[in-house]
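Predict the 3D structure for this chain.
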Amino acid sequence: MSVNNDKVVTHLLELPNEIFPDLLIYLGAGEILKAFLELSERNSRLASLIAPFLSYINLSHESNFWLTTRLPKFREIIYSACVTTRQLLYLRDLPSLETLKVVEIHSTNDLDTALQLVGTRSPKLYSLKLNFTSKRDVYHLNNNFDIPLEEFDLSLRCFFTPTAQWLIHYVI
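Done. Predicted structure below.
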């Protein structure tokens, strides 16, 4: 705490540990990493305070640059992740990863290969959820990824665009 022109200024690292959970509960894991990553690299107390809030991370909106530079620094403590198919290759070394959700699957090209790679490098992975976005009539997914899973969930989100004929027939 410092006094500046009769104002009391409290710095983040002067706050007691008990206040951090109340502050961090309002932020997602990606936001916490963006806000506190560099400071936590120099301060082990802060790193230990934010670590419990990083166990689940939604990476589906993160850039490739962010995934290659920031994600590896916390790879040991990420237990659950949500990614797009484009980001699967960036999950190479997450040894603690237990659950994985892949969203916005528009194509199955190389999906089984990427899943196999993630499975071999994430030995604790036991749950996989694949959310397909219907843009085609047929998806072909090989079962070559050979991951010993306890939970496997497939879902398909369809887009329905009503035609004028449908509206006239069913609405009126």
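The chain has a mean pLDDT of 78.
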